[in-house]
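Researcher: Structure prediction, please.
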Amino acid sequence: MAKRDYYEVLGASRNASADELKKAYRKVAMKHHPDRNQGDIKAEDKFKEASEAFEVLGDQEKRARYDQFGHAAEGMGGGMGGFGGSGASGFGDVFGDIFSEFFSGSGAGSAGRGERGSDLQYNMDISFDEAVFGSSKEIDVPRMETCDSCSGLGAESEKDIKICGTCGGTGQQRVQQGFFSVATTCNSCGGRGKTIANPCRTCHGRTRVSRTKRIRVNIPAGVATGSRIKLTGEGEHGANGGSSGDLYIVLRVQDHSLFERDGADIFCEVPISFSQATLGTDLEVPTLEGKARLKIPAGTQTHKIFRLKNQGIAHLRGGGRGDLHVRVVVETPTKLSARQMELLKEFDDCCEDESNPIRDKFVETIKNLFS
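Model: Predicted structure follows.
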C-alpha cells in the first residue's frame, strides 16, 4: 500500500514553519495516541504514521530531501527512518509535551518536587442576624498536616532516606510500548525519587498526619446564602515541602421569623385594623435595629407598601444599605359581638352613596366585559 504524503498526514501545508509542523503533529498524535484509544488498531496506525511523518519533516535536512524526492528519498542514504537522526531532539521535545498530558506533567526532574495541599470546603449555617451584622465564629476543620515528629521527612532521620534504586532518583520508569517508550511514575518510590529505610513512627512515611484544627472565621456584614469566604493557606498542608491549600467557607443563612430578604432590601408584613386603615394612624414597626414610627394615611388599602430608606442590610462591598419595605395587611375581625355587628351594618348602610374607587372600577370592568 502506497504511503500517504507526509504533509497530508499531519494536516500541514508544504510552506508550514517548524513550529507549525510541531503543532500539527502534536494535534494528530494527541488525537490518536494509544492511551486514548486502547484497543483501536486504526488509531494506533495513524499515530505511528504521524510519528513517522514528523520524524522526517521535523528534521531540516530530511525535510529538504523529502520535498525534492518524496518517499523515494528513503533509499538515498542519510537515513529517513528511526528516531536517532539529527531531528531527534525536536521530535523528543514534542513527544515530551504529549507525554506530559497523560502523566500530569511529571516529566524528568520532577522527583521530590513539592506537591500543593488540597483545597477544602466547609459548609456553615449562620443566623439571619449574623449575616446582617457580621460575626466571628470558630470551627473545627479536619485536615492533613505536616508531621511534627519528622518535620515532613517521612523518615526517622535524613540518613534513612536513600536514592530509589529502581528509577535512580528521577521518579520515573521507562515503559516500552511498541516502537517507542513512555515515562511513567516509578512504582517503587511513587515518583519521589527516594525510598525510606526507616519510616517515621508517627506518619509511617506519609510525611503528613490527620489532625483537626480550630479556626476562627470572620463573617462580614451583608453576606447571603452561597457567599464564600476564602482562608488562604488553611487547607491541607502540602507534601514534600509544597504549599498549603486554601479553605473555602460556604455560607447558608437561616430564615428569619419576621423579615424576608431580597438582596440588600428586606420586607415585612404588619397587620392593621379596618379602622386604622380607614382613619389613618401612626404605627410602631420593627426594623433590624429596633423600632421606627410609620405614618399610615387615611384610606390605606391592604398590601400597600411603605419604604423606609437605609433601614435594610449593608451592601457587602460597601455603598450604603438597602431599604426596609413594610407591607400593611388590613385584618378582618373574625369574632364580633352583637353590638359590633349592629354598628357595622349601620356603617354599611351609611356607605351606599360613598365612593369606593377599587370596587367601582371592578364593577365597571365587569359591565364592559359582559355588555
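Model: Confidence is low (pLDDT under 50) at residues 78-89, 103-110.
Researcher: Thanks, that helps.
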